[in-house]
Write a structure and sequence with these properties.
- The chain is of the alpha/beta class.
- Helices cover 31% and strands 28% of the residues.
- The protein is built from 10 helices and 15 strands.
- The structure holds NADPH dihydro-nicotinamide-adenine-dinucleotide phosphate.
- NADPH dihydro-nicotinamide-adenine-dinucleotide phosphate binds next to α1, α2 and α3.
Length: 327
């Protein structure tokens, strides 16, 4: 037996609780992992609270991230005792995920835990941090360098935003952090933000084009915020869009794209090919100041993760939640 969060569904809707689970209940897969830590991401919070259609089959163990030790493997790349990380691939949505002491998954989904990170640090990064790195890689790929101008990070005090601020500032960019939490300005400056701005300035419907400011942007909010960010991005600037914390709509015009040559890059972490994942984790290992992860991540146990899910969706959680599944 092992412990895990299980989401079950009945006529009253989905309900999540910590349960005793049996190994025979684990789904199919060629690698069994003894999970040490998982995380609470925005998507996990939607799954646990039943606020979004994240879980595609019930019962489900949520948790889109995990780190642990291979216990049993029929996959040629993984041996018992290997330390591994998993982000996405539908775990916690269609396949039992990381918020349990054991997981059985496809070996193709696992990557080696980079040696510079402890399991806790890898989860302080988690899907949010690896997505932030994918956004940084996209900015680089589209030619935005530190000398090109300011980079705006929206939802900056959240998981993706915090890691994006830390990464971009370490790489030498001038980072402007947009947040609805002025009380967290000190935290964002400590992560490397050169300036902290109130997210209210991006929140309402805006003009098709505004004063050009950003050489690049990492947007986790969507909706009017993404539209206003595109409208204020400089000629040939690049906006990476990875989130919908403010809404899934995109009430924009084509003006920034056809008049200023702005590039809007979509970033997905879930089905991202293995090569890009390995590159993102390799760059996290070299470009992220691990000392900042202590600031970004807070650790909780399995049962504590449940009430935190609602708070995370309300934007009340700063940085990243690491879940010690044995606590
Ligand atoms: P968090 O909840 O940690 O952070 C989201 C932040 O967005 C909040 O902290 C808040 O920042 C801001 N925010 C929340 N609600 C609103 C709102 N109504 N209007 C404006 N800003 C708001 O989530 P994550 O950082 O983990 O994820 C952020 C988004 O990215 C989510 O939508 C998530 O689903 C998505 N995501 C997508 C991935 C992909 O593969 N494409 C992977 C990972 C995440 P502040 O208080 O600083 O304003």
């Amino acid at each position: 037996m092992f412990k895990g969060i299980l989401i079950e569904k009945d006529d009253a809707g989905p309900r999540a609780a910590v349960r005793d689970l049996d190994e025979t209940q684990l789904p199919e897969g060629d690698v069994t992992v003894r999970v040490s830590h998982s995380t609470l991401n925005y998507k996990d919070a939607l799954a646990i609270t039943g606020s979004g259609p994240v879980v595609r089959r019930f019962p489900m163990v949520p948790g889109i991230d995990l780190v642990g030790i291979v216990e049993h493997s029929e996959h040629p790349d993984h041996r018992p005792g290997d330390a591994v990380v998993l982000n996405g691939w539908g775990v916690g949505e269609t396949h039992w995920g990381g918020l349990a002491q054991k997981a059985r998954v496809k070996g193709d989904w696992l990557i080696p835990l980079p040696s510079v990170f402890s399991p806790q640090q890898a989860m302080a990064i988690g899907t949010a941090g690896y997505t932030a790195m994918l956004c940084v890689l996209a900015l680089e790929k589209h030619g935005v360098g530190p000398t090109d101008g300011e980079i705006l990070v929206t939802g900056a005090a959240g998981g993706v935003g915090s890691v994006a601020v830390a990464l971009l500032s370490r790489l030498g960019y001038r980072v402007v952090a947009s947040t609805g939490r002025p009380q967290d300005a000190g935290y964002l400056q400590q992560l490397g933000a050169a300036e902290v701005v109130d997210r209210a300035q991006f929140a309402s419907p805006g003009k098709p084009l505004g004063k050009e400011r950003w050489a690049g942007a990492v947007d986790v909010v969507g909706s009017h915020v993404l539209a206003n960010v595109c409208a204020t991005t400089r000629y040939r600037g690049v906006v990476t869009a990875c989130g919908l914390a403010g809404g899934m709509d995109f009430p924009a015009t084509v003006a920034p794209f056809i008049l200023r040559g702005v590039t809007l890059v979509g970033v997905d972490s879930v089905m991202c090919p293995r090569g890009d994942r390995l590159q993102a984790w390799a760059r996290l290992a070299t470009d992220l100041d691990v000392a900042k992860l202590g600031e970004i991540g807070q650790e909780v146990g399995l049962s504590e993760a449940l009430p935190l899910a609602g708070r995370l969706l309300k934007g009340e959680v700063r940085g990243r939640i690491v879940v010690d599944v044995h606590r």
